Amino acid sequence: MTNPVFQMIQIKVKFFAVLRDATGAAEVSLQIPDQGSVDDALQRLIVIYPAIARHVDRVATAVNLAYVGRDYRLASGDELALLPPVSGG
Amino acid sequence: MPTDDHIAITSAAIDTAEALKDFSTSATGGVAIFLGCTRAERSSDGRDLVALDYQAYEEMAVRQLHALVAAARSRWPIIRCTLLHRIGRVALGEPSVLIAVGTPHRAESFDACRFLIDELKKSAAIWKQEIWTDGQTSWVPGTPVSPR
């Protein structure tokens, strides 16, 4: 058996509040393997932006404007948002 | 069903009188109004708060606020509802959030208004940063959101 060759897809990632400060970016593009999960994307982001590592446990994730779990499978063009604990009002 | 609800995330100052204009109808017996304002604070090391600076994931927050109003409408006989939240810098004493709910009877308007501010604070994709007299800033720790 040969290892399957994963096609890469591109997603958009948005950072807010403490994560925007930690990354210095509001929005970035990220390449992940096709069918990669939100957790896969987070692991990749931690490598690129080590400063977010200490916040990730408390971060909620949303895809295309709706909250999703870490096992959610991403598709090309998805907008993944990393949402620190909220403090509106 | 179309409604006159006004739901927005705005960088403009909230004009309370304007937001409440034409709010009462002949069927409305009670209008409950909540204003959340920037309160003066002193940090443990003696610095004073100058302002709050709000950031939002606007597209998501607006959608969430609409969903909250829809949830409130399914529980209470709401005639009209306005829900405004500021982004950007909000000086001491200025409102960052305005919620007004008009219903036939007062108990429903109080309950629905309370529900809306409580749920907004728990889940809306909005963050506030404190700005202190020495120029330092700090994000308010906030409430972790657990995906369903």
How would you briefly describe this protein structure?
The complex is a heterodimer of chains A (89) and B (148). Chain A is α+β, with helices and mostly antiparallel strands.
Task: Note down, in words, how this protein is organized.
Chain A has 89 residues and is an alpha+beta fold. Chain A contains two helices and five strands, in the order βαβαβββ. Chain A has helices at residues 18-23, 38-48, and strands at 8-15, 27-33, 60-63, 66-68, 79-83. In chain A, strands 2-1-5-3-4 form a five-stranded mixed β-sheet. The mean pLDDT of chain A is 94. The chains are: A alpha+beta (89), B alpha+beta (148). At the A-B interface, helix 1, strand 3 and strand 4 of A face strand 3, helix 2, helix 3 and strand 7 of B.
Defining traits:
heterodimer; A: 89 residues; alpha+beta; B: 148 residues; Aldehyde Oxidoreductase, domain 3; 4-stranded mixed sheet; 4-stranded antiparallel sheet
Q: Which of globular, elongated, flat, extended, rod-shaped describes the shape of chain A? A: globular
What's the gyration radius of chain A in Å?
Answer: 13 Å
Strand order of the largest sheet of chain B: 1-4-6-2
End-to-end distance of chain B: 27 Å
